[in-house]
Design brief:
Layout lengths: L2 H5 L1 H19 L3 H34 L2 H8 L6 H11 L5 H13 L4 H13 L2 H11 L1 H28 L10
Helix pairs in contact: 2-3, 3-6, 5-7, 6-7, 7-9, 8-9
Length: about 180
Amino acid sequence: MSRYLKKHWINLSLILLFAGFIAVSYYLDIESGEETATSFFMVLFEMMKILPFAFFIIALIEVWVSDEMIIKHLGKDSSAMAYVWALLLAGVSIGGIYVGLPLAQTLYKKGASLKLVFTYLGFVGIVRIPMTIFELSFLGIQFALVRLMVCIPLFLLAGILLGRYLSKRNYALKNTDQ
């Protein structure tokens, strides 16, 4: 067995099991399995529309934005303005958490503090401009404002507390470059 297969045999087994489930569902005409396959492929195609552009943008950030700039604006010694930067960056993000996680990893590798990385990830889920516009059009301005006024301070506090807690314990994100 190759080294790659030994390392990833659980993931490969789960993928094969899922593919087998889908095949059996279509063969035996099991409606829930067919619906699962349809939902899976709809999400997969939506991600494939967003992810190439998002990873291109992340690659540009890795190349064009210097570590010193990230450390200055988002590092552990940065000012309170760093949270505004995290909010703005999250607001213009596309793709939600699919893009937020790899971008957070890039920011962390370039020197952003853990508390700002966690704050950014929280903000990605609540302040993206396209999502807010969609929400305004269906739920109204009052709902959107209340949600933002409640969620932004909560995610800010959660990011700060989680970052401090993990920093005190010398926690570091796993290096995925290997």
